[in-house]
């Protein structure tokens, strides 16, 4: 499948009074046309900064320190705001956690969607715009669109607002949709509906989607592939099946164990002990070592490379080195036998 986005060795830092915050560290991944890639990890691991650096929506204190961003094969890494403004709407669109940040509560929803259409399709006639508004409202599952056109978001439920935001995000016919925690503010049933909708849209329109979440469980129903981020780095990436049935990084195991499903029958939900490290002077070696019950001596000394497990599955953990001891992972469908040092 054709690559629509390719991020190579991207590093992004912030200047702060306490020092350089290394928010994104040497991240590489690609996104294919029409696929849903989930980026998962605890709060502060760099998911939002990664997405914002691709769309060039970072504050002034941020700098791209290295690496490149290619969109449809064109290198946009050095693009200034003027160049970005030309492509941003056409290529990228986004949905955020709180729909009310993107909606005006007191303007008719139909008018807000129409406005978004007109920004990108200036030559459309009034009738064409109205027709597209209704199509978009139908696409995102807003029933009785002709009637709802005249309703204001403050009358809407949370799920309905998020559907409206999606209609606005899709108004520009973007190639890539970024959805940053789009369901966090919603209750569980509505969460599921919105994720199913994301999947449906991707299937109908072929829009490639980057779905950001702190919850590995939430993205399971929508993602084709999953990238797990920790302390500014992608530590594991693979197809959804590989990540859920054959996870290899101890951090992914920790995230899996934290899911309610794995704590069934126990009194308390599992939580990964400790906290992610500061991204000002992150630890040398594997940043997860201090929280990792399977850490090896080398984890404190040297950063693990990305080990390849299959054509699509990679993980950065010394446990995949051929000299690592044999352990049995706490989660995953497959029993993995690591060879011992011998
Ligand atoms: N404007 C900023 N100035 C300095 N540091 C920042 C700024 N924005 C983000 N950071 C830092 O960059 C790191 C990554 O933050 P980011 O928001 O990308 O994390 P995240 O994984 O998206 O978390 P969350 O789920 O809480 O949004 C954090 O350590 C954060 O404190």
Pick out its properties.
about 350 residues, alpha/beta, Rossmann fold, 2 domains, 8-stranded mixed beta sheet, 4-stranded antiparallel beta sheet, about 30% helix, globular, binds adenosine-5'-triphosphate, transport, P-loop_NTPase, ABC transporter ATP-binding protein, ATP hydrolysis activity
Q: How many strand segments?
A: 12
Q: Which small molecules are bound?
A: adenosine-5'-triphosphate
CATH-derived topology of the largest domain? Rossmann fold
CATH architecture of the largest domain: 3-Layer(aba) Sandwich
**Tally of separate helices:** 10
Task: Give the % helix.
Answer: 25-40%
Low-confidence stretches: 335-342
Average of pLDDT: 90
Shape summary: globular
Overview of the structural elements:
With 342 residues, this protein is α/β, with parallel strands linked by helices. It has two domains: 3-223, 3-Layer(aba) Sandwich (Rossmann fold), CATH 3.40.50; 233-320, no CATH class. The protein contains ten helices and twelve strands. The protein has an eight-stranded mixed β-sheet, sandwiched between helices. A four-stranded antiparallel β-sheet has the order 2-1-4-5, covered by helices on one side. Strand 4 and strand 5 (74-75) form a beta hairpin. Helix 3 (109-120) crosses helix 4 (126-139), helix 4 (126-139) packs across helix 6 and helix 6 (158-170) runs parallel beside helix 7 (188-205). The two termini are 42 Å apart. The chain binds adenosine-5'-triphosphate. Residues 14, 16, 21, 23, 41, 43-49, 59, 61, 214, 279 line the site of adenosine-5'-triphosphate (ATP). The site of adenosine-5'-triphosphate (ATP) has 16 residues, from strand 1, strand 2 and helix 1.
């Amino acid at each position: 499948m054709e690559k629509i986005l390719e991020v190579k060795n991207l590093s992004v830092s912030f200047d702060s009074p306490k020092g350089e915050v290394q928010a994104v560290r040497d991240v590489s991944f690609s996104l294919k046309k029409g696929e849903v890639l989930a980026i998962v990890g605890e709060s502060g691991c760099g998911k939002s900064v990664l997405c914002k650096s691709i769309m060039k929506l970072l504050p002034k204190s941020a700098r791209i320190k290295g690496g490149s961003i290619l969109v449809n094969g064109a290198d946009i890494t050095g693009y200034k705001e003027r160049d970005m403004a030309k492509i941003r709407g056409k290529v990228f669109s986004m949905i955020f956690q709180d729909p009310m940040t993107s909606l005006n509560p007191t303007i008719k929803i139909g008018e807000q969607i129409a406005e978004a259409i007109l920004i990108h399709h200036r030559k459309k006639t009034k009738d064409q715009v109205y027709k597209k508004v209704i199509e978009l409202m139908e696409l995102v599952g807003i029933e009785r669109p002709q009637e709802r056109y005249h309703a204001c978001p403050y009358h809407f439920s949370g799920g309905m607002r998020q559907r409206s935001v999606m209609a606005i995000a899709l108004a520009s016919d973007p190639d890539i949709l970024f959805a940053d925690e789009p369901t966090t503010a919603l209750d569980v049933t509505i969460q599921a509906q919105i994720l199913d909708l994301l999947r449906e849209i991707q299937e109908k329109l072929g829009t490639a989607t980057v779905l950001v979440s702190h919850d590995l469980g939430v993205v399971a129903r929508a993602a084709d592939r999953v990238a797990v981020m920790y302390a500014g780095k992608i530590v594991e990436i693979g197809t959804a099946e590989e990540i859920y049935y054959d996870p290899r990084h101890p951090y992914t195991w920790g995230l899996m164990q934290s899911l309610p499903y794995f704590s069934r029958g126990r009194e308390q939900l599992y939580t990964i002990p400790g906290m992610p490290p500061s991204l000002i002077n992150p630890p040398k070696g594997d940043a997860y070592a201090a929280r990792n019950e399977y850490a090896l001596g080398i984890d404190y000394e040297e950063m693990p490379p990305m080990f390849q497990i299959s054509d699509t599955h990679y993980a950065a953990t010394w446990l995949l080195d051929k000299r690592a001891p044999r352990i049995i992972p706490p989660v995953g469908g497959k029993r993995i036998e690591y060879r011992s040092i011998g």
